[in-house]
Amino acid sequence: MLIQATFDTGAMRFLKRIAAIGLACTLPHLAQSQPQCRQALALGLDVSASVDRYEYRLQLDGLAAALESPDVVEKLLASSETVIELSVFEWSGPSNQRVLQNWTALTSETVISDIANVLRQTERVPADPSTGLGRAMLFGADLLQQRPDCWSHSLDLSGDGQSNSGPRPQDVQEDLRLRNVVVNALVVGASVPGRDLTSYFEAYVLHGFGSFTMQAESFKEFEAAMIKKLLREVQGVMVSKASPAPTFPNATQ
């Protein structure tokens, strides 16, 4: 009986060791099978008083259609091992920002269509009518900080006017939350006489290496401009395996 008990105990220890080794080999494989985030992209939409109900609808429906554009879908889903994570919010005055779509990994056409449907079903709510561009920049930066493991961080702000409330965009440029964020802009109404909005956004809103503006004459052209903007925004080199880019605390834009 003693010999049998000793054998059983030894066999159990052996089996447990084999199981532990198998689990140790399996866990890294499971971890590697999870796609890494190559880009966190936050889209901010201007809903201040200069945007009427009709233009509000054109803006949200235009973004929805742009996300579902075949060329954009192809870029968004270009790699199965690295994904883009998307969040959408709207902004007006300094205290009015509303997240319309929480962070979502774009892993399939179905996921993209679900986001587009959320945007199409979103209704406008009362908000501060002023234009707080600087606060919108910081809100977008705070959102992007929720995705620290993504290799790059992009903030895409759409707007049709200059900031007139809250911190000025030029005054938040050195905020540490924007240190590793690229801020791009879609300027609506850029060709309106007497309003050089493109120059304003380029001087005070754009931030980071490679930042750019895209122009739309009005909200009727928002969809087409957003398609071009998204294609440019996500056309970065596809990498299957990489580490997050190093940070440089003393770097300036």
SSE blueprint and pairings:
Blueprint: H1 2-33, E1 36-46, H2 53-68, H3 70-76, E2 82-91, E3 97-105, H4 109-121, H5 133-144, E4 153-159, H6 169-172, E5 181-188, H7 197-204, E6 213-216, H8 222-233
Parallel strand pairs: 1-2, 1-4, 4-5, 5-6
Antiparallel strand pairs: 2-3
Helix pairs in contact: 2-4, 2-8
CATH topology of the largest domain: Rossmann fold
Task: Please give the count of helices.
Answer: 8
Low-confidence stretches: 18-31, 237-253
What is the overall pLDDT average? 85
CA radius of gyration is 23 Å
Q: Give the total of beta strands.
A: 6
H-E order: HEHHEEHHEHEHEH
How many domains? 2
Strand content: 15-25%
Biggest β-sheet strands, sense, barrel:
6 strands, mixed
Strand order of the biggest β-sheet: 3-2-1-4-5-6
List keywords for this structure.
Rossmann fold; 253 residues; 41% helix; disordered C terminus; alpha/beta
What does this structure look like?
- The protein has helices at 2-33, 53-68, 70-76, 109-121, 133-144, 169-172, 197-204, 222-233; strands spanning 36-46, 82-91, 97-105, 153-159, 181-188, 213-216.
- With 253 residues, it is an alpha/beta fold.
- The protein has a 6-stranded mixed β-sheet, with helices on both faces.
- Strand 2 and strand 3 form a beta hairpin.
- Helix 2 (53-68) runs antiparallel to helix 4.
- The model is unreliable at 18-31 and 237-253 (pLDDT under 50).
Structure, briefly:
The protein is of the alpha/beta class and 253 residues long. The protein is built from eight helices and six strands, in the order αβααββααβαβαβα.
